[in-house]
Amino acid sequence: MTPEPALAARLVADLVSLMQLEPLGDDRFRAQSEDIGTPAVFGGQVLGQSLRAASLTVGADRPVHSMHAYFLLPGEHAPIEYSVDRVRDGRSFTTRHVVARQQDRIIFEMSASFQTVDEGVEHQFAMPGVDGPEGLTSELDQRIALGDRLPEPWRSKAIQPHGIEYRRVDPEDLMRPEVRPIENQSAIWMRAIAPLPDDLTVHRALLAYASDHGLLRAAMLPHGLSFMSGQVRPASLDHAMWFHRDFRFDDWLLYVVDSPSAGGARGLCRGSIYTRDGRLVASTAQEGMLRIRKPGTARTPITG
């Protein structure tokens, strides 16, 4: 279910506003936080805002090509300050390091690399042949359909419309997914539900935001686990992203994810992001904590 146009435009405007940072001087910026119903601030929000902060210190002629981040502490639903260190400005490459703080606590750090637009060899993996987004059930509708089965912590924010819509190609029970072979990929369509500004740094920041949605889930499916079941204590530990080609986030993008390994209470997940016409525009990788919850233990923050 996509909200009616006026509401969709307002929700997307709120999301864009989340990526508009307040300059504090000396390459420091303040950003607001949104509460999507998780105990800690959503990790994708910090990814997007940190990339936006770094981009504000680099010329538009040098788009980002990679970012590597670590989630150090759970963030609170409160303003976050980002400080950018101009590590290097070379002839072709620019490097930035970003630190996110809340109340003098460093909760996150990220390094990003930007490059001039250059010519070179080109190749890519082909996009998997999957159904398009039309006719697929949105995750929002899946959550609403759970009714009383939806755990109490999810019953308010998780059933409210959002500026980004997600549609899984192979929807499964959000509470009790079937065990899948580790070789199986999972795919989800995603987009902003209303037109975005033409500023491509906003599109990249919002893709970084969305790339944290469902990525760690790939390490749970081989074990029949889910975020909502309460059986597992998950948290994002790090996140890497590579930007290959230009795109618009208000057009549908296909996010294909898998998990080649899990062990030591950690799971490694990878993702490839394609446009509808099959162009590979970005790749992701993330390792997350995955601990089986013992009966009676309290829930821990989910950062991703």
UniProtKB/TrEMBL annotation:
Which reaction does this chain catalyze? Answer: a fatty acyl-CoA + H2O = a fatty acid + CoA + H(+)
Q: Domain (Acyl-CoA thioesterase 2 C-terminal): give its ranges.
A: 185-289
- Top-level taxon of the source organism: Bacteria
Say yes or no: keyword DNA-binding present. Answer: no
The Gene Ontology terms for molecular function here are:
fatty acyl-CoA hydrolase activity
What EC number(s) does the entry state?
Answer: 3.1.2.20
Is this entry keyworded Repeat? no
GO CC terms for this protein? Answer: cytosol
Which protein is depicted?
A: Acyl-CoA thioesterase 2
Q: Look up and give the organism this protein is from.
A: Acidovorax cavernicola
